[in-house]
Design a protein that fits this description.
Largest sheet: 24 strands, antiparallel, barrel
Strand content: over 45%
Number of strands: 31
Distance between the termini: 47 Å
Helix content: under 10%
Shape: globular
Number of helices: 6
CATH class of the domain at 42-119: Mainly Alpha
CATH architecture of the domain at 42-119: Orthogonal Bundle
CATH superfamily of the domain at 42-119: Photosystem II 12 kDa extrinsic protein
Radius of gyration: 25 Å
Oligomer: single chain
Length: about 625
Amino acid sequence: MSFSMSKKRLLVLYFCIGAGVVAWTQEVLPPDLTESVQDEAGEWDLDELGTLPLDINRIRLDQLRRLGILTPQQQQAFLNYREEYGPFLSLYELQAVPGWDPELINRILPYLSCGEPGLADEGEALRYIREGKTTLSWYNRFVSRQAAQESWLGQPVQWQFRIRHQYPDRLSLGFQAEKDAGEKSGLAGDHQSYHIQLIRPLKGLDQVILGDYKVSWGQGLLVFQGYHSQGSGAGAGRSAQPFRPHTGMDEHHFFRGIAIAGTIRSGLRAHAFYSLRSLDANLNQTDHGTVASSIPKGGLHRTTSEAGYRHVLPARTAGLRLEWEKSGQKVGFQGIWGGFAHPLDPPLNYYNRQDFRGSSLWNGSFDHELQFGNLYLFGEWAYGGNTSFAALQGMQLSLGKNFQLSLLYRNYAIDYQSLYGNAYAQTSKMANEKGLLWQLRWSPISQLRVEASTDLWHHRGPVYRERGPSGGQQQHLRISYQKRKQYMAYLLLESQLTQTNLYRLRLHLETQLSPDWEYRIRFNAGKAGVARYGSALQQDLLYRPAGKKWHFTGRIALIHTPDYDLRFYSYENGLLNQFSIAPYYGKGIKSYLNIRYKGLRNTTIEAGINHLARPSGAPEGPGNTRISFQIRYEPRG
C-alpha cells in the first residue's frame, strides 16, 4: 500500500475522529456507570496470584503485595488482625481492620472471598475432583504467507491445547501442548508441559508439585521465574509465590521435576526442588570434547538449524530454601546448584569475558523483608560460587496515606555469575552494574496520582555496544487522573540518557461511552539521538457487556518512527489468555479485531485478526497478517 499523498490526510482524519468521540462522550456519558476503568498493565499480572478470588483466611503476604492495592502498613494490619482474632467470619469483617476504609475495601473486594474457617484439610480428594473447575481450550493462529519464511520446515500455523482442573487453594492438574508457526511436528506438538499441584495434602506439608513449575526466591539474585515490574514499580520490591505450576507456553523459563514446601515449626518453612530436563543448545566439537556455545531461549524449531539444537543439553538443578516469617517479618537462606551434561563455553568477545563457563555452578544468598511501622525494608545478598558477590537493598517509606518514597540500591560484581538470576538491572546479565533507583508516589486527592522515578547506574567494565566503563540515567514521570466509573487519563514522560539519548512522551485517555462500550486513544511521540523523531497514534474500541453473548475489542494504530531504536511498547488484547507486548516502530498501520461469543452452554468461542501493513520496500521487511481462533469449554461452572 502507499503512504505518500494520503498520509497527511489520513493522520488529520484520524485525529478528528478521536477528538469527536471524546467530545461526544462528555455530553452523553452517564454519571453512574456500573463498570470501572482498569489499567491495562494489570490485565496479565493476575495469574501470579493464584486462583481468584482469594480466600482471606488463607491469603499470603506475597499475594497481598501482588494485588498492587495495599500499602505495606495495610498489608501488615490485615495479617495482625487475622493473627489476633482468628479466621474471618465474613467479608464484612474487613471493615474492622485498622486502616482499611470503605474506598479501599470496594477496590479490593472483587479479588477476595471468605471460606469456611472450619473447612476440613484432609480426606477431601474426591470432592476436589468432583467439584473443581475444569477448562479445555484449543487455540489456532495462521500466519500469512507474506510473513512466512521459505526455510521453515512446517506450515505457518500455530496451535495450542490446554486442559486444566482446579479446586481453589487445594488442587491443580494441567497439561498443555504447542506447535509454533513454521515448526514440523506430530499430533503431540513441539512442546508439552504438565503438572500436578497438591496444597496442604498432609499436616505440615504445605505444597507438592510434580511436573513443570516455576521458582521465585528472594529478590531474584539466584532465581526468579515470576512476572515482575522492570519499570516504575521496581522500587516496591519483588514478591511472588516461591513455587507455582508452569501453566504458560514458555519453553525455557521453568523447571521439571518435583518441588516441595513444608512447615517445620511455627513460622519456619522449608522449600526444596529437584529438576531434570533437556535444554536447547548449540553444541560444538572441540579438542576437549563436546561443549555448548549458547543456550537459545526462544523455544523455536522452525528451520533445520533450529531443529538441530532442540533438547540436546541435559540439565540438572536442585535448590533448598529455609524461611522464617512472623508478623510480616521474613528472612530466608537459600542455595541453588545447576549442572550440565556438556560444559558451557561461548566464544570470547569484549563483553562476555566474565560470563560463566563450565559444567556446574552453585549460588547462595540471604534475603529479608522487614516492616517497622511506616518503613518497609527488603533486600538480598548473594554469593556467585566463583568468589563473586551481588547485593540488592531497598526501602519503602510511607509518609501518610497518600505519599510513598522508595529507594533501591544494587551492586553486582563484574564477575558475578548466576544461571537463573533475574533481579532488577539495566542489562540482562545482572552483573557488572552499580545503581540507585528512587521512586515516589503521591496522591494529593483521591482522583489524582503522581509517580516519578530516577535510575542512575554505572558499568565498571564492557557491556554490549560499550567497550569500556559506561553508565546512564533514566527518568519516568506519570500523572494520572481518574474519575471512577467514567474515565481515566494520564501523561507519561520518559527519558534515557546514555550514549544514544532517548525521550518519549505518551498521552492516554480511556472513557466509558456506556456501561457496555469503552473507548481508548493514545498518542506516543519520541526522539532518539540528535534529530530522529517518531510517533504512534492508536485508538481502541471495546464492547464488553455483562451477561451478553457477544464481546469484541478492536484497534487501529498509525506508526511512524525511523527504526527499532525508537519504539513504543503497547499492550495488545488477544484472545482469552493470549496477549502480547508489541514494539511499534518503523512505518505502517497496525490493526486488530477480536470477537468473543458466549452463547453456547459452558463454551466460549473466539476469533481474531491482527494485521500490520508496511509500505513496499520498507527496511523493516513486509507486513504480516495473523488470524487466530480459540474455543474454551468448561464442563462445570
